[in-house]
Amino acid sequence: MTTVASPIDRSAQSADALCAVGAEFHRRGWSLGTSSNYSLVTSRTPFRLLITASGMDKSSLTRADFVTLDEHGQQIDNHDDRAKPSAEAMLHVATARRPGVGAVLHTHSVWATTLSDLYHADGALFIEGYEMLKGLNGIKTHDHRERLEIIDNTQDIRTLAQKLTRRFDANDPALTYGFLLHKHGLYAWGRDLAEARRHIEIFEFLFEVIGRTLMLKGARTR
Amino acid sequence: MTTVASPIDRSAQSADALCAVGAEFHRRGWSLGTSSNYSLVTSRTPFRLLITASGMDKSSLTRADFVTLDEHGQQIDNHDDRAKPSAEAMLHVATARRPGVGAVLHTHSVWATTLSDLYHADGALFIEGYEMLKGLNGIKTHDHRERLEIIDNTQDIRTLAQKLTRRFDANDPALTYGFLLHKHGLYAWGRDLAEARRHIEIFEFLFEVIGRTLMLKGARTR
Amino acid sequence: MTTVASPIDRSAQSADALCAVGAEFHRRGWSLGTSSNYSLVTSRTPFRLLITASGMDKSSLTRADFVTLDEHGQQIDNHDDRAKPSAEAMLHVATARRPGVGAVLHTHSVWATTLSDLYHADGALFIEGYEMLKGLNGIKTHDHRERLEIIDNTQDIRTLAQKLTRRFDANDPALTYGFLLHKHGLYAWGRDLAEARRHIEIFEFLFEVIGRTLMLKGARTR
Amino acid sequence: MTTVASPIDRSAQSADALCAVGAEFHRRGWSLGTSSNYSLVTSRTPFRLLITASGMDKSSLTRADFVTLDEHGQQIDNHDDRAKPSAEAMLHVATARRPGVGAVLHTHSVWATTLSDLYHADGALFIEGYEMLKGLNGIKTHDHRERLEIIDNTQDIRTLAQKLTRRFDANDPALTYGFLLHKHGLYAWGRDLAEARRHIEIFEFLFEVIGRTLMLKGARTR
User: Fold this and answer.
1) In angstroms, rounded to a whole number, what is the distance separating the alpha carbons of residues B68 and B97?
2) Which of D25, D110, D126 is most worth mutating to test chain C (most C CB atoms within 10 A of its CB)?
3) Could you report the per-residue pLDDT of B124-163, keeping only the tens digit for each?
4) Tell me, what's the pLDDT at A6?
5) Among A37, A169, B161, D38, whose Cα sits 20 to 30 Å from the Cα of A193?
6) Distance CA C109, CA C186 (A)
7) Least CB-CB distance to A205: which of C32, C155, C214?
8) pLDDT averaged over every residue in chain A
9) CB distance from C202 to chain D under 8 Å?
10) DSSP strands (E only) in chain D
11) B159 to chain A nearest CA, in Å?
12) Under an 8 A CB cutoff, do C129 and D57 touch?
């Protein structure tokens, strides 16, 4: 006999898992200030997304710091005045509605912010030939070139979410694992929270490698 | 019925909160040696400021490592020989007397010290276009340019405190969130300790982004 | 009377020791994503190598996340479907079969990845004149030049393992402590786990020194 | 009535304090591999110096990992085969015999190693104008220039110890707080362990500031 968790248990467990991610990502410098949002699909039919509320300190999240949204981004929990979704929640909804996406993590690291600016004119950051790429789900060889798009930052999140939805619906291959927002941060996702966290970790590692390599190649050929 | 904390309880709780900030900031490399001071307004009328005593190791503060000052910076607690305010306490008093300031944090990080020197001739560090700026209280868009003043370092703290007081009284917009002292460190404040800590965290993040971006742009255009 | 640990106890203790290495190396940024493998010789006759299974998160290894291989790299434990050796396990077997090798650690750090690319055309990284080199077993003076080979990365691990075996059998002096794989990471080993861990730690320290020195020498002579 | 600690208690307490320093300095990256030695004067008359034994992992020191030396560097404890003083212990003895020195700490950090090489031709590293300098005992203003000598590394420690002793006896002002060994590391000391640890922490902070400033000034003027 399998024990089936009730929706309430499931939501509480999901919140606890995201609290742990928050404490870890804050410690690693990826979720400082009130930056970052994390979300988990807790039900597919009907669509339910548990997501961090707006403006929370990610180093000390509690179960009260989350809201539940439907497929239109409407808050459907019995909410009090304190916990509201942030505007960026719509980007999580747009992403998590895709088949095969179970968790979406948004982070603001030093290296992501820096590289999103340095390669902004190119429209994308290219990551090529690293063994670490094999940690992204489905990549089987280091002999791979990953294109991570850099999207202009905006406060008009609704329009951006609509654009992303159209591209997701068209299965745009540029949006397989994540994207960068210019001078803002990284969005990455996965089938479940463990995979989304791993994808964040891998991109952060590769950002630092690319940043340091660029500085050293400058130093060496000078 | 609301339980009202006694002034002694309030002071002890405030000291405990600042001890925790000290342990965290030392770990993050922002309060090494005997550097840094932290203060909290424990009463507005009469004005009472709880502040770290001079020369304490911030990694292991205890309740005995604080003094209480009045609005003139005079020590009003029953002090022993050990705990004395540092000269810089006057900068905390001058800042905390402002309406709306509940906590003042002063830190000495590598990046703050480095950028305060690099941009010293400009008189200020400009931070522009970063999403992380929205973590500063009142900033609603990344499309913002924050001017963080760089003030010459001095051992004549009394004179500097008087200058700051005049500028605070005139509501100088350059002194909204904090300032840098040249080759010395950062002062930042907030309505309460959580906001002051968040402002420090956000500035430190942005300092590192600016530093690394500058190095990388040099590397890229070489 | 000496208490002899049973093979099962020995294997469990070895797994616990490698779990601790995983937690530490993940925290230090050397084993992110699903990267890295760690192995320990648990028996010399017959040859038995305990090694991390493929694709595990190194921050939270458990005893179930290991497999045992024989001298041909064949899995000899009662394995379930979940724990399989990774392709790279053959490099561990080839290395650990050498006399005097008791533990092999493979890590993917930012500095190892970066320097493996920067010095790829040279075929090796040279480390010379550092006191820290004396932490490598057998080096008695800082006046030493260590050559750490950089081998092309490949997904054909079996062929690479055969090449390494031939070089080990010929006692190639270039393969005394470890080697780098291009844009991939570091292999290092030792008589026992403590020595292998120390060798990793020393190489990682020296990589960072070399990287920063190179950047600073560029800055200074500009 | 004052409780006087017995010599054995004193030695055990001193060892415990140095074990804690080792765990902290390893975590901060200043005592990796088998590098570093720490010593404390446990008696002035007769002179007794407790010091880490040769080759110990500083992340997990125990009371058994120390030896006691007399003013000639002779081991005077009932030693077993395992715990022997390292050759460099003579530098600790030479330093600790000076009046006013109660603790000597030797560390190997990335920044100390890097700057000791970068400024080797100058014979010294100059540190000027930083507020953090005031954490060094006796410095009252940031308007100070500290000269930290860079001494050639050698395996002939006995000769180096003799040279240092002559300079200490002559009260050489260049040896007030510490010195660097080329491509090797930092020696610093203080009246007691807390002061020596603080001096190490302050130098390490300033090394990083100097290193990053040098890189950024290069980037800015390019």
Assistant:
1) 14
2) D110
3) 999 999 999 999 999 999 999 999 999 999 999 999 999 9
4) 76
5) A169
6) 8
7) C32
8) 93
9) yes
10) 37-43, 48-52, 66-69, 103-107, 124-128, 145-151, 178-181, 185-190
11) 33
12) no
